[in-house]
Amino acid sequence: MYVNAGNLKKGDFIRYQNEIWQVQKADFYSPGKGSALMKSKIKNLMSGKNIDYTFKSQENVETLDVESIEMQYLYKDNENLYFMNERTYNQYQVRLSIVGDIASFMKEGTKHFVYLYDDKPLNVRPPLSVKLKVVETEAGIKGDTVTGAKKPATLETGVVVQVPLFVKVGDVISVNPETAQYTGREQ
Amino acid sequence: MQINTTIANLKNYKTYLKVEEAVHEFMRKKEYLKVDLPVLSPALIPESYLEVFQTDFTYLEKREKLFLTPSPELFLKRLLVHGVGNCYFLGKAFRNSEPNSERHTPEFKMLEYYKTKSDYMDIADELLELLRFIYIRVNGLSEMERRKKQEIKFQNKKISLSKWEKLTLAQAFQKYAGIKDIELFNDEKFIEKAKVKGYKVDGFTFEDVWSQMYTQEIECHLGMNGYPTMLYDYPKEFAALAKLNKDGKTAQRFEFYIGGVELGDCYTELTDWKEQEDRFNEEYRKRKTSRKIDHPIDKGFIEALQYGLTDCAGIAIGFDRLAMIYANATSLDDLKLINIR
After folding, report:
1. Comparing C-alpha atoms, which of B227, B224, B201, B226 is closest to residue B212?
2. I need a surface site. Which of A80, A163, B27, B300 has the fewest CB within 10 A?
3. Among residues A38, A40, A6, A36, which one has the least CA distance to residue A22?
């Protein structure tokens, strides 16, 4: 399907120069002469490389009809993350370089949505939030809780995030994997 | 859109206030008259590339259309014709159909000023002085400290306000896009070159492709080499209201950038009212064909110009963006306490 570049938004999959890209950011921009532009950041889903590209807002861009299928995340090695479609038992692999930092918030055995195009896996859809257990953090740091002082905490996947001072080992916290921000603690 | 309250922006907002105070102080020192102007007007200058906001004044059965001003230019130039001399406006401007982004909001603050008996280079010199003055006020520096240090930190880059990095538009296109002089000033050759570079050109105008290449290949380098960049001498097609240079191909216009952020646009003003009127009619026609809001043309403005606009140069600066630079904020979202997004 072709759309005007002016309608592109974060998360869209496009074909550009015969490769598949995912839109990371798209800002409308009016330069004052000529038609408006769409300043975007796009990620190449083969190489994982990000580039800045400016489309004319009226330019046709091919968007791809991509499915997102819920799968079980099995494990990762140095290059790939491995998933299984629990209905078909088919396994899929997504390159670590494509998934990026979000991979460090993914716990083996949990369910995630994987984007498929022509049955080929493109990327993992980042969950809005993940729940992970705190395995290491300094106890009883005193500080000003009103102004939101933070301390580092290691979570069960090994990733370190900044958390409020009251969080302790064993707590399950929610984190936005895209920003690595603490969003709350499970009761 | 929704209303966002962001008290966490208090520190940046206080910098914004200091920048604002510094501008008023500098302008007073340089004897520019501060002008308070309406933002609702019954007529506007037609500009084909921007959309306006329209509202109604109602009284009993009567209705009159009013428009939010996209720039204070129409009022300031009337005043110049009446001999007010150097003057400035620091206030709100409104542009429709341009969504919110990190660098733009439909309602924004604009600093626009005119200097008589001057050209764009005079404005450039004084502007650098203004940028340094704001720096001193924002950081509370003494005269002694000022001499040693005049460096803004913006997004991990140090930008010295000691001088301009000056580039003509032709030099910039040569340096960053490999476009030769002859290609820049010839529509066909330019389009040909753009096509080779992989830009889509079919169905687009020279201006469309030019703006795209400029944004993609040039803009990201401007104000990134340790100094603010002043990009000057635009092809005359891109500076309809500016005085022509002797070469006949370029006009006296500059834009300036810090850290890749476009901050302002300056012209040595065209004083020929016939030329202005032609340009108005052309812009009005373009507005009609692109089905933009049909607002009355400010005829009084043309009449005023017939009395003769004095030789002057003027500049419009995106004030919020300027304050964003001094606050070292990445986005306009981080600058104010209440934002509509």
Report:
1. B201
2. B300
3. A40
Q: Could you list the residue range(s) of the whole structural domain that residue B330 is in?
A: 3-161+273-340
Q: Is the pLDDT of residue A156 over 60?
A: yes
For residue range A84-143, list pLDDT tens digits in order: 999 999 999 999 999 999 999 999 999 999 999 999 999 999 889 999 999 999 886 666
Q: How far is CA B31 from CA B35, B135, B207, B210, in A?
A: 12, 20, 39, 39
Antiparallel, parallel or unpaired: β A67-76 and A60-63: unpaired
Q: Note whether residue B197 is domain-resident.
A: no
d(CA A13, CA B272) in angstroms, rounded, equals 51
CA distance B341 to chain A (A): 14
Question: For residue A149, what are the CA distances in angstroms to A2, A143, A146, B86, B193?
Answer: 48, 7, 8, 50, 55
- B234, part of any domain: no
Examine the pLDDT at A145 and tell me if it is beyond 70: no
> Per CB distance under 8 Å, which residues of B are interface residues toward A?
49-50, 95, 97-99, 101-104, 198, 200, 204-205, 207-212, 214-216, 220, 238, 265
Evaluate whether B115 touches B314 at the Cβ level (below 8 Å): yes
Residue with tokens 């009226």: A58
For residues A6 and A12, what is the distance between their CA atoms, to the nearest angstrom?
12
In a domain, B336, yes or no: yes
List the single range of A47-56, A61-70, A155-164, B94-103 with lowest mean pLDDT: B94-103
Give every CB contact of residue B85 below 8 A, 6+ residues apart in sequence: B33, B116
Q: Between A and B, how many residue pairs show a Cβ–Cβ distance under 8 A?
A: 64
How many Å apart are CA A96 and CA A109, to the nearest integer?
17
> Residues 6 or more apart from A90 whose CB is under 8 A from it?
A84
Sorted by where each starts, the structural domains of chain A and their CATH numbers stand as: 2-63 (2.30.30.30), 67-125 (2.40.50.140), 130-185 (2.40.50.140)
How far lies A51's CA from each of A42, A62, B3, B157, in Å?
6, 18, 32, 21
Q: What DSSP state is assigned to residue A158?
A: S
Average pLDDT over residues A145-152: 74
Tell which residue, A113, A41, A110, has the closest CA to residue A75: A110
A83 close to A72: Cβ distance less than 8 angstroms: yes
Q: What is the percent of chain A where pLDDT is above 90?
A: 79
Q: Which of the residue ranges A54-58, B17-21, B138-142 has the most confident prediction, judged by mean pLDDT?
A: B17-21
